[in-house]
Design brief:
- By secondary structure, this protein is mainly α.
- It folds into two domains: about 5-50, no CATH class; about 70-170, no CATH class.
- The chain is about 45% helix and about 5% strand.
- The protein contains six helices and two strands, in the order αααβααβα.
- A two-stranded antiparallel sheet has the order 1-2.
- Helix 3 crosses helix 5.
- The radius of gyration is 22 Å and the shape is elongated.
Length: about 170
């Protein structure tokens, strides 16, 4: 099959809601299970080779940090979208004062065990785990940065401003 015919075949399949190879898509994804498995195997090998050579995952030279200038905007947007989704799952407002501005909201560990958890699950991975349902949402709450700081500095485990609505530790245990 020539390149043009192959391209038309892929575009037709995608337009009809199938994987580009013609297989049945996995729910909420653009690929079938066979394509996902083969891409995962190749991606792992390719990723390791590029990392060993000091390249970005796309194969371009890295600028600063882990990505090239081409991938940085997509990486940033993915992180923003992932954070927005995690915040939406946790309630979209500070449980203490009701602040709703996304830039002020922080994920708080209800049982004050965030330092231990971050050793195993950094913040970026926490957002991913929240979105994929791999962690219990009852262990987390949304606080604005002011209430989260007051909760920490008060030593009581609660925000100590006069009109707080937050229940201490939000659980009975």
């Amino acid at each position: 099959m020539c390149k043009e015919a192959s391209k038309r075949f892929r575009e037709k399949n995608i337009a009809e809601g199938r994987c580009r190879c013609g297989g049945v898509r996995v729910e909420d994804l653009k690929s079938c299970q066979d394509c996902l498995d083969s891409n995962r195997k190749m991606s792992s090998k390719t990723y390791k080779q590029r990392k060993a050579r000091g390249l970005c995952t796309c194969g371009r030279p890295k600028e600063e940090g882990k990505s090239c200038l081409h991938c940085l905007p997509r990486t940033y947007q993915w992180r923003v979208d992932r954070r927005k989704k995690a915040v939406a799952l946790l309630g979209t407002e500070c449980v203490c004062c009701g602040e709703t501005f996304l830039g002020f909201l922080e994920v708080d560990h209800v049982h004050n065990d965030g330092a231990e958890e971050r050793k195993e699950l950094p913040t970026a991975k926490l957002y991913n785990a929240i979105c994929k349902g791999k962690v219990a949402l009852s262990r987390y709450q949304l606080l604005c940065s002011n209430c989260n700081g007051r909760k920490f500095r008060s030593g009581l485990g609660i925000c100590d401003h006069p009109d707080h609505k937050m229940i201490r530790l939000r659980t009975s245990g």
